[in-house]
Design a protein that fits this description.
five-stranded mixed sheet, 659 residues, single chain, alpha+beta, wza like fold, Outer membrane lipoprotein wza fold like
Length: 659
Amino acid sequence: MPERLPTPEAQSLEDRPPLGAVPTRSPIEQIFSGGPLGPGLSRDLRQFGYDVFREPASTFAPVSDVPVGPDYVLGPGDVMQLYLWGMVDNVLTLQVNRRGEVFVPKVGTIPVWGMPLGEVRRLIHEQLSKQFSGFRLSLNLSELRSIQVFVVGEVARPGVYTISSLSTMLNALFAAGGPTKLGSLRTIKLIRSNRTIGTLDIYDFLLRGDRAHDIRLASGDTVFVPTIGPVVGIAGNVKRPAIYELTAATRVSDLIQMAGGITPISYLQRIQIERVKPHTEKLLLDIQLGDLQGRGSPSDNPYVEDGDLIKIFPIDTKIYNAVFVEGAVRRPGEYELKPGMRLGDLLPRHEVLPDAYVRRVEIIRTRPDFTRELYTADLEKLWQGDYAQNLLLEPSDQVLVTSESRPLGSVALHGEIRRPGTYPVIQGERLSSVLKRAGGYTEAAYLKGAIFIRERVRRQQQEELDRFLRAQEEALLNESARITAGTLEFTAGAKEEAAIQHQVVQQRRQLLELMKSKVILGRVVVKLDSLERFEGTSNDILLEAGDQLIVPKQPSTVLVLGSVRNPTAVVYEPDRDVEYYLNRAGGLTREADKDELHIVKADGSAVAGFLRLRKVEAGDIIVAPATVEAKIRTLPAVKDIATILGQFALTAGVLGALF
């Protein structure tokens, strides 16, 4: 494990982020992260090159079991294996001692400290040849020595490190966590015996893979990382937007090359430099850089300065030399507008689908003042040689070719249908035809309670329902305000009555919310019958896209609603009249409007008048509206209404009668 040097920065080092963690913005990055730069540009710039040191140090530690070349310099601690064969057969282990010597039997000690491995092999062979003849030898390193180096300056963990003798400056930096973002990547010094023997520029390695100046370390070396030099940011449409450190005079074109070059959508006719006037203010400079090789005017390719931010804007990405084709053509989309291009060039006969309506092709043209004009042409006449139909096209024209075919619609069958589901329908198809395709009804189908919903009608009824609900809500608000205002003048008994009425208003408001979810919109009264009798009747209506048919099971109750003492669902009894069901619900209240009493049949139709002579069937709803004066009085509890409505689908007419 590396030993840390005592340093006054010990406390700040503990606060540094761990290796592998995504660091927060450095002070330099914060300087460049001001306001917005414009469309397509971001100020989220990071300092280039520092991310490589986030990986754990072991990933980049030098291996010690690789073959060592003849240029390896020996030192104390290295262990070599000497193999002899021929007239002399032996294997010797030679370790370099602290004095830098190895002992060879019959020869004695040989100084090898600081000598390359290849030179030592030649020297040992020369000394042994004085004692023996007719032999051959091989000399290899079996164990590498460890060395201690110092890594100091602006690094994540400065200290003294014990590393392999094969280590270079980069290996030592990785072991120490790399330079901080206040440390330089371009002027890292190697100090040996109090002399600077080399300088490492990590940009050479990161940008070009060049490690020529990555010097191998010796024991006692010092790797020193000074503070960072001048920095310049480049944002926008370059391949590697970042903050770069500079070491020499650098022009804008040089910085762009350092950032990987421009993207295809870069606009070089206006490059903007955001420059800091030292200790005073910020300035903007606009330049026109037409030549990245620097062959243009120096004023168009100036030197960058410390703190500059270079902005590379995008080109205008809108396509102007295009026309658009939509509709019944083989290849709709954008087309190049060639000089002098006309409608016939764009739409030859073979590019138009057979179902296209060629008698009227529309061209929508946008004028410079953004108004639009509509032009029409007859393709049939154009193909027959009528030049007047061959309109000259202009940029951004939209050409629309309509189709004479109509898309297939679909209807949905639910409930007691033998094969329920969604069925495509053709124009002019009737309900009986789709029912036959679906296999007809099941034995449990209740045809009188069938619900037929039409989307077009649903939209119309939704508008009416919304108006009705708004009117009822306003009436309830007005009634609530009247009761509250009148309470101040009432006697004690009257105040109690007012409190009851206020509670009633609240109940009516809750009931109104409940009714919203119970009303079926879009229902069209259709009286189903067996398919043999149903086909060809007035109820066998033409289908429209989006129609739905729901055939329920046979019901077993009759619903009694409105001004009765106990609104409820009564078990159906055959041959019973309206009076029977009203009595089972407690009878009519004093507020009931007997003249408006009516029955809503299971198929959605309603009957009124002479109700005692009417036949009541399972699934019917008997509605007893209240008189106009009584509609603000007490209604049954909302929870009771909610309980009995669960199995019934109410129409908007029932809702209106209750209110």
